[in-house]
Amino acid sequence: MILWFRRDLRLADNPALRQAATLGRVLPVFILDTRHGDGMRTGAASRWWLHHSLLGLDRQLGGQLRVVAGDPLDLLPGLAGETGACAVCWNRCYEPWQIARDRQLKTDLRALDIEVHSHNGSLLWEPWEVHKDDGDPYRVFTPYYRRGCLGRPAPRHPLPAPDTLAVLPPTDGEQCGAAAIEALSLLPGHPWHEKLKPHWPIGEQHSRQQLDAFLAKGLEDYREGRDYPARPNTSRLSAALHFGELSPQQVWHAASEEGLTRGLDKDLAHFHSELAWREFSYYQLYHNPSLPTANLQPKFDQFPWQDRPALRRAWQRGQTGIPMVDAGMRQLWQTGYLHNRVRMVVASFLTKNLMQHWQHGERWFRDTLVDADLASNCASWQWVAGCGLDAAPYFRIFNPVTQGRRFDPDGEYIRHYVPELAKLPDRHLHAPWEAPSALLRECGIRLGRDYPEPIVDLKQSRAAALEAFKSISG
Ligand code: FAD
Predict the structure, then answer these.
(1) How confident is the model over 440-469, as a mean pLDDT?
(2) Number of Cβ atoms within 10 Å of the Cβ of 62
(3) In this structure, are residues 58 and 34 in contact, taking their beta carbons and an 8 Å threshold?
(4) HEC profile of 29-64
(5) Ligand 1 within 6 A of 274 CB?
């Protein structure tokens, strides 16, 4: 039996693995697909995570994970032939290129009399199961979640890891385990990734601990605290969910147990609804395969985006002169993660104040986020840019100064990532260009030397963005 690991790098609550384990001896395989992918290159931070996640999974499998690079359409029939496997089991993936590849693979394997068993190991609700009464897909989150998802049976309970797993031993000369993972060369040549390590527990066991720690300390007050980047009220589980070190069912039910026992009903409901935003992203991608490449509202095809690489570089490097934006972009660069509230602020700044196409931001996030996820990333960028299905109304242009004052009132987040401003009093921290020059001098700051002057005027650029929107609104 071949068990093809994909975005389900775990042993517990892995429906495909459980089935494979009951069918006989298992050949566990991970394939780095070098052929398909629609040109959406996996980013450097994701490759770094994948490298460590595979090492963790391999340890759990006693060093017997088979790891290869190539085209699964060639490799899997070949492996089945060599080992005499009569079935291949996997958990479903939902990116358009994966769906097309898997469909082809099913046909090819069945033509060779090899059974294929696919399961749901990554989503709470299959995208095709949730629809309006007339059969059409939902376009708006709230009815999708409240009527469509919550109206269905509750997500299934997680399955335990198989009690026993008989792994087919490697043949002589077959490279597997850590050596095969190293051979994939997932780690970037540049040692940039070394700084990410202290921030992340990677692999199934560590992710489970991270989930438990969040439930013990972060779930209480999640509803409000999740918006404050300096508070410990977010789970930071997005990468574990993306790579499937944890399933959404495990997270959903563990949260339910903790939340209901401790009477944290509102925090729990909010946490569940955030998991549902992940589902909605996959739902949108499934029903709109062009989500990564096309505006879901076609009128945005006429939007007068500007093309100013120097502004984009300042944004990427956290050198815009707007502290909340710079803190966010530096958090991203230093840790591979960005708090959700700040993701919205920096994305709004790029697409609206700087009027750069949302795909520039999507690409940068894809390369630098450890949780980079085609569905969530593209749906969120389109949401912020205003061109998505259930997008934020265009006039909702986040003011990074107001957002900073509201969600980082003591400046803890900004001072951490923009230490050159640390001495400024809270009142001036979020807009240093408005601080009296004597105060700036006293704090040892000269704008333009120690910290940039703002690269745009927030008021004028907001007005220009609204004007541009008017031009496509007829
Ligand atoms: P928590 O608040 O603890 O939420 C729990 C889980 O729910 C998350 O791990 C995540 O899986 C899911 N979730 C929460 N909020 C959202 C959301 N708005 N959309 C989709 N799922 C959500 N998320 C990604 O996983 N990958 C991405 O590439 C990604 N890109 C984004 C780009 C932009 C411009 C924006 C505004 C948001 C993006 N998000 C993305 C969504 C969200 O910011 C992250 O999922 C969240 O910050 C992860 O932190 P957490 O695990 O601590 O979240």
Answers:
(1) 97
(2) 11
(3) no
(4) EEEEECCCCCCCCCCHHHHHHHHHHHHHHHHHCCCC
(5) yes
Q: How far, in Å, CA of 325 to CA of 239, rounded?
A: 22
Cβ of 227 less than 6 Å from ligand 1? no
193 lines ligand 1 (CB under 6 A): no
Helix, strand, coil percentages (3-state) for the chain, rounded to 5, are: 55, 5, 40
Side-chain-facing half-sphere of 65: CA atoms under 13 Å = 27
Ligand 1: does its nearest atom lie under 6 Å from the Cβ of 223? no
- Angle of helix 358-368 relative to helix 309-316, nearest 10 degrees, comes to 40
**361 CA: nearest ligand 1 atom:** 34
Of 120, 192, 340, 420, the catalytic one is 340
Helices then strands (H, E): number in the chain?
21, 5
From 236, 367, 380, the mutation candidate for ligand 1 (largest count of ligand atoms within 8 A of CB) is 380
pLDDT tens digits for range 341-357: 999 999 999 999 999 99
Beta bridge partners of 89: 3, 117
374 lines ligand 1 (CB under 6 A): no
CB atoms within 10 A of CB 92: 19
The answer to whether 277 is a known catalytic residue is: yes
Query: For residue 172, what pLDDT band results from cuts at 50, 70 and 90?
Result: confident
Mean pLDDT computed over 298-324: 97
Atom of ligand 1 nearest to the CA of 369: 28
| Each residue's pLDDT tens digit, 244-256 | 999 999 999 999 9
Rounded CA separation 231/407 (Å): 10
> Tokens 């609550």 identify what position?
13
Could you tell me the CA-to-CA distances from 366 to 9, 183, 192, 383 in Å, in that order?
A: 20, 23, 16, 16
Which of the four pLDDT bands, split at 50, 70 and 90, describes residue 53?
very high
Contact 233, 225 (CB under 8 A): yes
Asked if residues 30 and 55 have their Cβ atoms less than 8 Å apart, the reply is no
Distance 284 CA to ligand 1 centre (A): 15
What six digits make up the tokens of 420? 């050159």
Q: Which atom of ligand 1 is nearest to the CA of 346?
A: 34
Judge whether 421 and 323 are in contact, CB under 8 Å: yes
Regarding the beta carbon of 281 and ligand 1, being less than 6 Å apart is answered yes
Whether the CA torsion 273, 49, 123, 254 is positive or negative: it is: negative
Whose tokens are 């918006």? That residue is 227
User: Cα(398) to centroid of ligand 1, in Å?
Assistant: 18
Catalytic residue from among 120, 192, 220, 305: 305
Active site residue 305: yes
CA dist 348 and 458 (Å) reads: 12
Average pLDDT over residues 435-457: 97
